[in-house]
Structures
1.
Amino acid sequence: MSSPLLQIDNLSVRLGARTLLHDLSLSLGPGRILGLVGESGSGKSMTALSVPGLLPEGALRTGRVLLDGRDLAALDERALTAVRGRDVGMIFQEPMTALNPLLGIGEQVAEAVRLHRRVSRRDALGVARAALDRVGLPAARFGLDRHPHELSGGQRQRVAIAMAIALRPRLLIADEPTTALDVTTQAQILDLLRELVREEGCGLLLVTHDLAVVAELADEVAVLQSGRLVEQGAVAAVLGAPQAACTQALVRDSSIRVRPPRPQDAVATPLLEARGIVREYRQGGAWFGRAQRLRAVDEASLSVHVGENVGLVGESGCGKSTLLRALLGLEAPQAGEVWVRGERFAGTARQQQRLRRQIQIVFQDPYGSFDPRWRVEQLVSEPFHLLERPPTPTERRARVEAMLARVGLAPADADRHAHEFSGGQRQRIAIARALITEPAIVVLDEALSALDVTIRGQILALLAQLSDDLGVCYLFVSHDMSVVRAITDRVYVMAQGRLVESGPTAEVFAAPRHAVTRALIDATPDLARALAQRAQESATATTLA
Amino acid sequence: MAFGAPCQADSMSAPLLPLTTAAAPGRRRIGVALALGAAITALFIVVALVAPFWTPWDTGVISVQGRLRPPGLQHWLGTDALGRDLLSMLMKGATASIGVACVAVLVGAGVGVPLGLWGAARGGWVDELLMRANDVIFAFPALLLAILMTTFLGPGAVNAMLAIGIFNIPVFARVVRGSALGLWTRDFVLAAHVAGKGQARISYEHVLPNLAGLLWVQLSIQLSLGIVAETGLSYIGLGTQPPRPSWGRMLADAQTLTVLAPTLAVFTGIAVVLAVLGLHLLGDGLRDRLDPRLQGAGVRP
């Protein structure tokens, strides 16, 4: 191999008394992709940020960061500014906040160009146009004056990538570039990144917690734990036969076992049943204009029976969330009925309260789902409002503490605020809140999507445990097929407001009938599949050689 | 995922980038403004509360010999055209101006806040109707509205309170509605819905407490505007009626005497400016202190 494009020698970073990175050494060749993986807080983002010198204020760095033989660690801020964007392009996780909402997309990309090259505005816009074409945003549909709010999440991420590659940097750094996107969009963005690296010959440092993404995209992988490099090497070797305990744990958490189907009693009354739900929204036409009707949910019918977990999957924008709102009784559908345990869920307020108790929810965002001013005891006990006789304060406290213990938190946590907890712990609080009134069904709305694999594994285990202990059923709404596969017995696939396919999870995954189902399954990164594919490729290569 | 709810700019959401730059100098400046504002405001409120019971001199006594005295040891700020002690007059005036402004702002907030919460919670035609009604009130310049009202209802402190209060309603309704709309799209509000709580209860338990910081800021700013409005009304004779002293009345009287006794207008003007400045500093300081983006930085993992 020729001399490496990026070489990190003995990099250490200290912030105050804490050492964030210990003596790290990595190298990356041109046209290669290096995956940087590890749990949250393992220092993978810190490593990536230390390359262009974007460390937190007061952080001390020792060691060398060589880009094409030039030591970036020795450069001052002014020289680094010139390097960022021109030699090193950065792509971040959140496409919503990475763009300036007031500027057109052409203007934003051109800005990056003009910061580094003395070119006229017109020439800069020309470069921007070329970059946008390059990332799959053709001029015909994506003019330079399109604004971020007119674009989807995936399209915004493409704009962010265009900004990063506009000056043809030698090195691209992508920090969780697809975590905020749904699986199909993720697959497209990963394809784009792979193609850019191959054709431009730049290096890509890919930071992610998703081993499956690394297995599909990267050539080499480096595993970090508590700021130390524990393992490094070719993807197939490291992930196929992990040596370090931490890598083994990551691989174990990423390869979700398929659940054996459970016998179910389809004759009994379903716990939850939706019949022909239709939900339309009026679009545009503020006062006098003619409003357009948008059918978000179109004649959707589904059921959840005693003792089964049901999945509802689909791309973002397919109407899953709207259907959920109807199931939870938050919005009345224009047509169709919701039945809970054989009773119509739409009647008088009193009846509503009684039925509402049967169905609770855990949201995706562990940060937004708690009132920041409330303490955990108040948060978890909020659904007690649904009881006809709410418990006395002492009784309430006791029940909250018992529930916190059940979800793996300490009783003393009842007195703390939600912001004092980590993402995984907050999801445990959310589960405690959902279970406090002993519902029959808990809806998990992308409840694991914001968590890293290790935490996800823990929460999955907790959910299985609770399901066994309390007999609660889950309606699992997600675009993450691998998790759906792990936890559900039956699955519904939704596309453009309609339920297009349903059946036992194992059958649907083994033989998907609808194109949307196939696309979703193919787009979901799968560690085992990616590794098998690699093994096959290398076998073919050896045979040919 | 926000449940496919109508997209609303969510300014209160957590900052996604780590807040690395420690805003130490900024913090300090904020602290000084807040402390100064709070001190000035507290001083005026104490004076306004004390004045009805005690002033250095009796403002009811007229002394022709002692009129238009310059500031001195006996009368610290001098005397007015009727020989009354200016400091005592200013103290009594503070009671009138701040009292009227306080009641007016409380009326405005008392009506405006529930309306804003209601509009945000109900949405649809209720919201539309409330906001258009607010626009109508808003369309009239505040002082003009007050003049109009006092002309019909007769001049006096109570009517001034009412007039300024009505003009405050849409201010509070709008501010509250705008921020409440953002909160209504948040998951914790949905969670409360799922817990079977109604719109009124959610507004009271979740939305209002999360708007508290904003409301304190708005209250202090509106209070300062209320003082200016009261001064304006009594200046043209539509506010507090003589013989009760008021800052506006005193300014009007001092205006004719600017050549003979400029200190009368100057000191009265300074009193008004200080009161308004104090409240504005307090409001700005509170805004910065209560800004969720500055608050609890570094708590998030």
2.
Amino acid sequence: MTKHHITPVWFFVGLLLAIYGILILVSGLAEWSATSKTVLGEYHAPVWWGGLMAVIGIIYIVAFRPRRG
Amino acid sequence: MIAMAMTQKVISLSPVDMAIIAIYFLAVLGIGFYLKRFAKSGEDFFMAGREMTAWVAGLSFLSANLGSLELLGWAGSSYQYGILAAHWYWIGAIPAMVFLGLVMMPFYYISRTHSVPGYLNLRYGRATSGLSAISFAVMTILMSGVNMYAMAVVMKVVLGWNIHFSIWVSSLTVGIYVASGGLFSAIFNEVVQFFLIWFGALLIPILGLIETGGWSGMVARIQANFPGKDFTHAWSTLGDFTNNPMGMHWTGIVFGLGSVISMGYWTTDFLVVQRVLAAKDIRSAKIAPIIGAFFKMAVPFIVILPGLLGLAVLSERLVPESAMQAGQHSYNEVLPLMLARYCGPGLLGLGVTALVAGFMAGMAGNVSAFATVWTYDIYRPFLRKTDAHYVSMGRWCTMIGLIISIATAYLAMGFASIMDYVQALFSFFIAPLFGTVLLGMLWKRVTSAAGFCGLLAGTLTSTLMFFAMRADPKWVAVFALSPHAQGLAQAMYQALWSCLVCILVTVLVSYFTKPRPDSELKGLVMGVTDLPKEGALPLLQRPLLWGAVAIAALLVLQWIFW
């Protein structure tokens, strides 16, 4: 991709993962004390899975951000 | 085949789920518009500038195949047949992907062809290329439409979405971003889709195994729920057709699926091969399918395992589509049911987005492959124009191909059985095409006339066997070696025999016709092509090493799940 100086696809992956991760994390925190309707809801999967996605997304954004020049 | 009975929708979406889905649509359109400025030339629009790295080419190669209908369908198949369904991800894919990378990609890449029909034109001439190009173009667009309708029905059943909304909104989104950025857009979104599929689906097996207490706990629950049936052994039940729920024998798996159908699909289906042709150099082109192979091997964890977990934990019994009554759920709904079981607001939206993304990436793959084959292999041979004209043609036929797909989707709505026939038609060409391409690459004695005759003979053989087995079941025992062979087993043997017929006819006709001189075959055939040696590369960069590691990992998996 160097010929066209296109922003690496990994940057877009990171952006989407970060946005989704934050949304899911916040949604999970908001539902923390509510009675879960899903099996194994007591594990609060949205919190740790959303957090994981957000962390990976931010790493990708930083590592593959468009550089000047 | 597709759920027509009324049933309660499986998943209810919250506002955060809807936001996640909406963001995905905006993201793919945004990526498409961003990439439009880079898709100026034909090489850019149709081949993504041939600049993709091994990882990007490899992940998009896998993603183009990993459509959501496949995800849903194979999860349903694993509920129905158990771990036997994993063969389509293991022996039915890995050897072929490694073979493509190590043996066939050098010829595809060195010939600088833009498509599989393009290679056939260089090797055999216009007749063989034309037969392949027209059949591929027609089948791809028909398959795209049939899949579009099937997906829309799934969305209706699972989410309660209006069928027309699903068809039009998803299709037009795909059309806009592919017409804008060409193969760049298709590949970028396939890589994004790859990550969404994994993050959307991976929680199901993780939470499922927690609930069952691990693999052995899951197996114990399955045995308690279905006494006397074996769903968790991949090979030990294949010694007899009647010993397993698929009605399959190991010869069908090894020689039909592993040797012919998988080879035919992974090495000649232009939809997947196009992604590897876009690689930036020959080493990347060789290793990209091998990178894909490692991830393909892991896909059963998110597709097959949920089906097995469904057997263990779901209180209701799922039924075939054809036997569904009101209030029941079909095999194909096992993945959405497991998604609804474990995933609350947010995660549910992510899972649904993964399914929608899978569908849209599959559509994008179909229309971008169609645009390339139509423009380069059918249109350009007859009309010589400027490069800019072909790019414009590519954009237009992306949208036209899309409209034809939508029309086919509505046709499928009226004739459910059309899906079976379109899928069967597609399979008629794949197995013989593998024989034609493989012989062309490995044996310089094959003549142009022989290539055409072999491909035609193999295709006609496959077609005749299919209709014969449908018309009179006695032919099932003849062609599929057992009267107990089910649909999948019949397809395996159909592929095997048609490929053998293709090879036999090609060899025979070659000996009676004149071969081309070596000078015309340079870059196309083994023996007259300078293939780059791997010895100059550092050990860890050699495709041969990683291909060997992939095969070793495959063998370990077979031993573990024997």
